[in-house]
Amino acid sequence: MGGVPIQNLTSVISVQSQKDERSTAAASELNSKPKKKICCACPDTKKLRDECIVEHGEASCEKWIEAHKKCLRAEGFNV
Questions:
Q1: Ramachandran bin of 36, using left for φ above 0, alpha for ψ from -120 to 50, beta for the remaining angles
Q2: Which among 44, 78, 41, 79 is positioned nearest to 64, based on CA atoms?
Q3: Among candidates 19, 8, 60, 67, which has minimal Cα distance to 42?
Q4: Is 75 strand, coil or helix?
Q5: What is the structure's pLDDT at 40?
Q6: Binding positions for Cu cation (predicted)?
Q7: How far lies 21's CA from each of 1, 9, 14, in Å?
Q8: Which end of the chain is more exposed for a tag (fewer CB within 10 A), N or C?
Q9: Which pTM does this prediction carry?
Q10: Contact by Cβ (8 Å): 42, 65
Q11: Which of 59, 63, 38, 37 is nearest to 48 (CA)?
Q12: DSSP string computed for 14-35
């Protein structure tokens, strides 16, 4: 039986395992990061929130503020 000596095979498996761990960590980081800038995310709820605050004041617009925060969280932002 020719081929790769067992010692070298163990090294190859160890290196491959380390690459897999790094790939998994990088993939989970990419999945958790927002795909947009916060200023560009959720334009609909942002507009409603801003208009409400300008017209009625922040204290009267909790509903829209929370709706916008919920949308931002869904986009991956930590707000």
A1: beta
A2: 44
A3: 67
A4: coil
A5: 95
A6: 39-40
A7: 32, 18, 11
A8: N
A9: 0.58
A10: no
A11: 63
A12: HHHHHHHHHHHHHHHHHHHS-S
**Stated length of the chain:** 79
Helix axes 62-74, 43-56, angle to 10 degrees: 160
| 61 annotated to a ligand binding site | no
| Tens place of pLDDT per residue across the chain (79 aa) | 566 555 555 554 555 555 555 555 555 555 567 788 999 999 999 999 999 999 999 999 999 999 999 999 999 999 9
CB atoms within 10 A of CB 48: 17
Q: Quick one: CA torsion of 28, 31, 32, 35, rounded to 10 degrees?
A: 150
pLDDT the model gives residue 35: 82
Question: Does the annotation list 52 as a binding residue?
Answer: no
